[in-house]
Amino acid sequence: MLDCAIIGGGPAGLSAALVLGRSRRNVALFDDDQARNKVTQESHGFLTRDGIKPSELREIARDELKKYPSVVVRDIAIVQARRLADGTFVLVAKGNEQIRARTIILATGLKEILPDISGLKEHYGKSLFSCPYCDGWEIRDRPLVVISEHPHAYHLAVIASHWSMDLAVCTNGANVLPPEQIGKLASRGIRVYGQRIALVKGSEGRLQNIAFADGTELERTAGFVGSQLVHATPFAEMLGCAMNEKGGIVVDDVGRTTAEGVFAAGDNATVTQTQIVFAAAGGSLAAMGVNAALTFADF
Q1: Whole-model pTM above 0.70?
Q2: Domain named FAD/NAD(P)-binding: which ranges (predicted)?
Q3: What is the C-alpha separation between 16 and 194, in angstroms, rounded?
């Protein structure tokens, strides 16, 4: 039986596996290769690895795990997780393989639901991004656009304006900005376009302009997209974990959820703090929580 099953092979899961391996724990990390940042060309803000491709960071981390014989990385999807009467867990992998574990770390992340706009996906991760802190530096001082159908559009626009004042906001027909917010943006030279977007146009993922349904166009070279973030898997619900008002899994300061024996780390817990540095830190904390819980249980 595993000491811990880690579901999710991103920065949170890999960090957790590293700490647990160093804690002499028998661990398996399950990775279905569906990371949200697969479309990302470079990851930023991670000390000593600024600008690294997410796939390269993943491979470096996996190589580092190889020196810990009690850690196994498996490229397989988990499809079900449930608690048994004795308090341990059984995970069901694709193909109906069953794995037993004393504890679980959910590092399954989130997935994005982008606005349904033709051409947007082709530019996402290349010239349209989700986070100014992650990609704002590379597109600074250029003609930027914020595309968002959500009330968060105002916050995103204000933050994005720090990287470029040549900024426009497109709400794709959604009435999400009250007049006072539109006025405040206008006072800073930020234009708001409320009409529906017919097409995001560019070449090889490089944005050139926004074509509206009324026939007008807006020249832009890059920008940010407000997307809806939802849980990538149903495991938190399956295992009875409570959620907070932001939609994240409720955790304490060591990643412990409200479900006994279940820990969570990364985007699925933080929700609004989705940089890889936060995910890696959360994975490390959750691993320490797991090791402490197991050690005290066996003491």
Answers
A1: yes
A2: 3-274
A3: 44
